[in-house]
Amino acid sequence: MLLSKIKVVGHSMEPTLKQNKIVIVSSIPYLFKKPTIGDIVVLKRQKYIIKRITAIKKEQVFVIGDNKKESTDSRNFGWIKKDSILGKVIHIG
Q1: Please, how many CA atoms are within 13 Å of residue 31, restricted to the half-sphere of its CB?
Q2: Do residues 70 and 50 make contact, with C-beta atoms less than 8 angstroms apart?
Q3: Which domain covers residue 57, as residue numbers?
Q4: What's the pTM?
Q5: Burial annotation 40-66 (CB, 10 A radius, 16+ → b, else e)
Q6: Any idea what DSSP says for residue 54?
Q7: Can you tell me whether residue 71 is helix, strand or coil?
Q8: Where are the alpha helices (DSSP H) in the chain?
Q9: What 3-state class would DSSP assign to 17?
Q10: How far is CA 63 from CA 13, 93, in A?
Q11: Separation in Å, CA 2 to CA 29, 30, 39, 78
Q12: pLDDT for 15-56, tens place per residue?
């Protein structure tokens, strides 16, 4: 995912990302540096999901939605392998 537009579906990242917003996602930043805490990333599970990295250990990340009451995230499905990250949100439209 060198550069892609993704539409936000759901409320799990509110207030940062509102439903129906378009975000630009890129894998390019992670060619030069590792993911860091605070990055908003896109992952592929059964569908694309957008979450914020809140913890990192070795080759895994823990991701949580900003709207914790409305988010299905690592608190439900556990740690995610870093190579499951498709890209970093680099622009919020």
Answers
A1: 6
A2: no
A3: 4-92
A4: 0.92
A5: bbbbeeeebbbbbbeebeeeebbbbbb
A6: E
A7: coil
A8: 29-32, 74-77
A9: coil
A10: 11, 22
A11: 9, 10, 17, 26
A12: 999 999 999 999 999 999 999 999 999 998 888 899 999 999
**Which is nearest to 43 in space by CA: 20, 67, 21, 61?**
61
pLDDT at 84: 92
At 8, which amino acid appears?
V
Average pLDDT, the chain: 93
Distance CA 12, CA 69 (A): 8
- For the CA atoms of 62, 49, 23, 4, the dihedral, rounded to the nearest 10 degrees, stands at 110
pLDDT at residue number 67: 96
| Segments of 1-93 assigned E as strands | 4-7, 22-26, 40-44, 48-57, 60-64, 80-81, 85-92
Q: What is the CATH number of the domain that holds 56?
A: 2.10.109.10
**Tokens 């917003």 -> residue:** 21
